[in-house]
What we know:
A: Nuclear Transport Factor 2, Chain: A; 3 helices; globular; B: alpha+beta; Naphthalene 1,2-dioxygenase Alpha Subunit, Chain A, domain 1; 9-stranded antiparallel beta sheet; 14 helices
Amino acid sequence: MTTTLDDHATLGPVPDGFDRWEVEQFLYREARYADESDYDAWEALWTEDALYWVPVAATDDPSRTMSVIYDNRSRIATRLKQVRTGKRYAQAPPSNLRRLLSNIEFLGGRANSGGGIDLEVGANFLVLESRARGNHLWGGRTTYRLRRCDGDLRLAYKKVVLVDNGQPIPTLGFLI
Amino acid sequence: MTSLIESAAATGSPYDKLIKRDKVHGSLYTDSAIFTEELRRIWYRTWVFVGHESEVAQPGDYVRKRLGLQDVIMTRDRDGELHLLLNRCAHRGNQVCDDAQGNSSTFRCPYHGWTYRNDGELVGFPFFKGYGQRKLDLSLGRVPRMDTYRGFVFGSFAADGPGLVEHLGAAAGEIDRLAQLSPEGAVELTAGWLQHKTRANWKLLAENETDGYHPQFVHGSIFGVTGSPIGALYSDTSTAVTRDLGQGHSENDLRPEFRKFAEPMRWFGTTEARVPDYVAAMREHYGEEADKIMIEGGPHVMIFPNLFIAEIQVFNIQPVAVGECIQYSTAVQLVAAPELNRRMVSQCMGSVGPAGMLLADDTEMYERNQLGLECLTPEWLDVRRGLNREKVDEGGFTVGGATDETGMRGFWSHYKMLMEAEL
């Protein structure tokens, strides 16, 4: 079970075996798959205990309060199956997207349920979304947890805190 | 049925030309002058859903809400009384509250330090000598009438008029049905609200909420991949009915379908074996009645103009402009049903809000609908579906089939009456 809360007090030191260049390349790749709606490649990045979370401002306990997205691995699969039908109208046609990641920080290590230590990384982002209804600029801070599985990096956790998550936001049909 | 079609006409108002029994004019969704009139005649007059008492459970709790374009602070004072205060200082009109929610006995205007108790009373202002007195005959504005039904808080800006129970009419029974799903007969809305900005006229949403014609098409993508049985409830052969509850309220009554299966908790997409504590608590509290409640499930009701209860989730629709509104959505939480409540939050999060696997697609339809209406021909939106087979049921309500536009016609009939009423 992936720990939901990402308070810094419970974070250990940055674990060994995570090269900054490799980690950055992984994050950029994840961003590109999302930008290009490459659902198969994006889905393959996740671990089995995945958690993909887009909270709203007032959320402290996502099991009791609403989040924009709070997907475990199974719900990520459902979300992607829906969009692959081509009839997920909120994302058919898909948004045109490009995002920038910056301020990438290695935040520390976090114990996972498999007995290992995941690398926790923070980054800021801006996404320009273009759809028929117009352009929208999304921005915020993402916290990732990365794990090495059979030599490759995988994504165990992605929490996206939108800067405007206390305000009404438009439809979020793409992978943020 | 021709006589029915004609019966909606001929009150001598301009709305005769825009609202017919079987069609409504496109300008109703795009004309900003009509939107301004709606604020005056509907949003600032009739009973409008604001929030739920459980959102301000403790003395001093407050939460900011919208009522039309106005910023309202729902507070609970030290004596436990609820208030709907307007977020506007009586001095210069500044907002006195800028947090979305919190707990405070007072609100202090940041501009000149005027301070109000959370019941609206002005309790102080700096440098009183400039007024020649320590007390002023001023206070925060308030929504003139506030009332609650099973904890659902409604406000009306009309100083007098029909009471809340009269406004709710038969829809009150649907709120009762929701509350009955709790072993203690009480609902809370404590899961927080998603806020979904929607570029469409609010009426497109109100009409869609009990439109049983769209689900198989708009939501086919999610029904297909999850194997959901919901689609069948809105099929051409469904025994569910669409009921005009009067006063602009309407429902999709799905009970006939659930009764066919007679399986407790089927309505929630689960079985009694999976929620044993809840089922036991229900049987303990309701006795023989429990199984009926658990078979029939929650209501699917649109309460005019802005409260939509869809089984496990609640929506508050508020207008922003003629072509924009906000959908607030949250999960129903049933008192004394912890086993169900977490599932409700989880299911609801998957379905509603900006990324919801159901509501994001509805919202896409609303927004494309609004754009479509910029085309000025054929002028009308057709709402005749089911007029050929409508009946009056044993309760005296007009009912259509599961996919019929009976709810929309009820909405427009009430809308027209409000827009034409003498003020």
